[in-house]
Design a protein that fits this description.
There is one protein chain. The longest helix has 26 residues. Helix content is 53%, strand content 5%. It has 297 residues and is mostly helical. The radius of gyration is 21 Å and the shape is globular. It contains eight helices and six strands, in the order E-E-E-H-H-H-H-H-E-H-H-E-E-H. The termini are far apart. Strands 1-4 form a two-stranded parallel ribbon. A two-stranded antiparallel sheet has the order 2-3. Helix 5 packs antiparallel against helix 6, helix 5 packs parallel to helix 7 and helix 7 packs antiparallel against helix 8.
Length: 297
């Protein structure tokens, strides 16, 4: 363990300020959501102002409609993310403590739930306003990886959702008793910084991939960007789960890797169970979009 890295001394608070008995301490994690949503709004606004990228040379919505759409997207992210965590990861606990479903400040958000919530918000908004659904979903997919990447960086700053024990030279010694609960690995329990792996794959790589496809004409094929996003995220998350520590409620002495599905000597974590269908659905959407693409695309 000679070359492992000590977790940097970074506060989860951006700053602390006391005013008249009130303490203001904005969190990096909350800021990741804000910057991700605002950054996505700027991207969408830029795209809507350039009709040449869209089918028939016409953007699917105007900038005034985008303002209304952002309300639906924000509600989908927060509401879907929270309900996804409740239903996918700890349904038994929240069934016994239903009021705590509302305690979002205590943490507990699921990307898969947020994706479902956002998708439903976009679909309902498009239906209510007579807007083509697939181009709007493509735009949402194109703007999502920014917030994903920032959220994973914030997970690292918060020293949460760390990876499995490791002896690689870039492994990190995270603070806290829970992170140190693997003394059998060595004198210190170092772990994969899996949050940064996910920030790179689900954030940076996926963002670049989607924009390359979009700028090369992908937005003129309705549904293509949505399919690429689903398949790309599903593949990235499935891979990253091999380095990420499973949620504590799934880990037992007989199941140290937290598998929820056993496949002989191998298994799948909850993250993989939720992500693998995304790969299949995404590839199907890509195939259907390419098959139905306009001749001018």
């Amino acid at each position: 363990m000679e070359f492992v890295l000590q977790f940097p001394d970074i506060s989860p608070d951006i700053f602390r300020l006391s005013l008249g008995g009130f303490e203001i301490a904005p969190k990096w994690y909350a800021m990741a959501y804000i910057v991700g949503i605002v950054g996505g709004w700027f991207m969408a606004r830029w795209l809507l102002g350039r009709p040449r990228f869209w089918p028939g040379g016409k953007a699917p919505a105007n900038r005034a409609q985008l303002e209304d759409l952002m309300t639906w997207v924000t509600l989908g992210i927060v509401g879907g993310g929270r309900l996804g965590y409740v239903l996918f990861y700890q349904p038994g606990y929240y069934l016994q403590n239903p009021l705590e479903i509302l305690y979002i400040w205590q943490g507990g958000m699921s990307f898969h739930g947020g994706a479902i919530g956002t998708g439903l918000g976009v679909i309902i908004f498009a239906w209510r306003n007579g807007i083509p659904i697939r181009p709007l979903l493509d735009m949402a997919a194109l703007c999502t990886p920014l917030g994903l990447g920032l959220g994973r960086v914030a997970n690292f700053i918060n020293a949460e959702l760390w990876g499995r024990p490791s002896t690689v030279s870039w492994a990190v010694i995270f603070p806290g008793d829970a992170a140190q609960a693997c003394a059998n690995v060595g004198e210190f329990c170092a772990r994969h910084p899996s949050q940064l792996y996910q920030a790179f794959l689900e954030g940076a790589v996926l963002l670049v991939l989607l924009w390359v496809v979009a700028l090369r004409g992908g937005l003129r094929i309705p549904g293509l960007l949505c399919g690429v996003f689903l398949a790309g995220y599903g593949a990235a998350r499935t891979f990253a789960e091999y380095f990420r520590q499973a949620d504590a409620q799934y880990i037992t002495p007989d199941n140290p890797l937290g598998h929820v599905v056993a496949l002989g000597e191998f298994g799948l974590t909850m993250g993989q169970v939720l992500s693998l269908p995304m790969v299949l659905v995404g590839l199907l959407i890509v195939a259907l979009a390419r098959r139905a693409r306009p001749r001018t695309a």
